[in-house]
Amino acid sequence: MMSIKKEEFNEMIFTRINDLINEYELIKEGEKIAIALSGGKDSVLTLYALKNYHENCGFDFELVAISVDEGIEGYRQHGIDAAVNNAKLLDIPLIQKSFKDEEGFALDEIYSYFKSACIPCGVFRRNILNKTAYEIGADKIATGHNLDDEIQSFLMSFSRGDTVKFSKFGPELNQIHEKLVPRIKPLWNTPEKEVGMWAILNGIEIHLDECPYSNLSLRAKIKEFLNNTESKHPGTKENVLESFKQILDVENIRTVLNECERCGEPTSAKICKACEIKDIVYENLDEK
Question: What is the pTM of this model?
Answer without folding.
Answer: 0.86
